[in-house]
Every structure is written in C-alpha cells, then in structure tokens.
Amino acid sequence: KQEVTQIPAALSVPEGENLVLNCSFTDSAIYNLQWFRQDPGKGLTSLLLIQSSQREQTSGRLNASLDKSSGRSTLYIAASQPGDSATYLCAVVFGDNYGQNFVFGPGTRLSVLP
Amino acid sequence: DAGITQSPRHKVTETGTPVTLRCHQTENHRYMYWYRQDPGHGLRLIHYSYGVKDTDKGEVSDGYSVSRSKTEDFLLTLESATSSQTSVYFCASHSRGGTSYNEQFFGPGTRLTVL
Questions:
Q1: Please, which residues have CB within 8 angstroms of residue B39's CB and are 6 or more apart in sequence?
Q2: Is B36 on the interface with A (CB under 8 A)?
Q3: Of A64, A113, B50, B100, whose CB count within 10 A is highest?
Q4: 3-class DSSP state for residue A101?
C-alpha cells in the first residue's frame, strides 16, 4: 500500500528559527508532490508543487526539496513567524493515471511562538 | 487561488436522511475530487471525476455517490446518512496544463454532523 508519513507530528519553535518538516513516501515512482498548509477550521492552501523531474521549488521563505530515490521530501521554512503556525501536509501523486492517486500524509502541526 | 466553493458550509442532519453536498469551480478544471478529513485518519479520497460524467471510486466510497453533469459542478450524495459519516468534507480540483501542472486546489470545506 502506498503511504505517506510526516515527522514530526508536532513542532513548537521560537520566532525567527529556521525549521525543516519531513515527508516520506513508500514508492519512488511518484508523479509529483505538493505541500499544503491548513489553518484550524479552514481548507488547504497550496504552498509548493514539485514535479517528479524537479529537485526543489522555492516560494519566498519556503523551499521544498524532493529526493525520489530515498522517498523523501523536506519543507524548509526560513525565519519562522507566528503567522506560519498551522498544520502542514504533504500529498504525493503515485503513478500517472486518471485517478491521479493523491495520498496525503497526516500532517505536522507547527506552532511558532512570539 | 482557484475559485472553488462548497455548499452548504455547515449541515446537521439525522441518520437515514439523504444529503447532497455541492462543489463549484470556476477554473474549468477537468479533474475534481471529494475528500473527507477525520482526526486520526487525515484526508481520504471518496470519489473523483476526470471529466463530465466520468467518475470513479476512491479509498472510502461506500455509502457515497457522485455526479458530474457540468464541468464546474461536482455533487456528493450520502444516500442514507450515518453517524460514521460525520466529518469535514473537502472538494478539490486541478487541471493538467500550464505552469501549475497537476496542482490541486481545495475548497473551504463542509462540516457535516449526522445525529
């Protein structure tokens, strides 16, 4: 079964720290990987999308990397701010078919303390 | 963000009643999805659509049906609601072209409570 895991489950850091969130997947034959943030009681907001042929993507203070051979992706957040507090989820598309088989990780709940 | 809306946003219903949730997108996306999100289970795919009148089952499709008669609308029906279907339901969509190739966009969610 194709699975996605995220470590840690929760993380609390002081404002200003750089931090790394991890996403692991069981099958290296992925189509792409997407990072989202979810605020409490809200929907998912897309942060970064990495195609299988790419190694990383950057948007502002966020940088996501992809290593298919090891089945891992990391989301790096630079100079964290209290507004970054949210749950971060990664979603992996396994294979290339109509189903676009998105499998979500359980998320990492981030708290950035002022 | 893509224009995806869901209705209703909140609903309370009783066991055994049918319920229909609506997802509407204005991006002309071909692919649309229904997920449910539950504590301890994360997001799980219920059904998806890869075009008008083209749908297929996801991981947790039992007790749910879908219909897509227009590109912009994707309906999720709980044929006879049960308490186990109390959840938050999210709709998502994406295209397969351009710089956002395969990037999924989500609606705001519908919180459904089945008493």
A1: none
A2: no
A3: A64
A4: strand
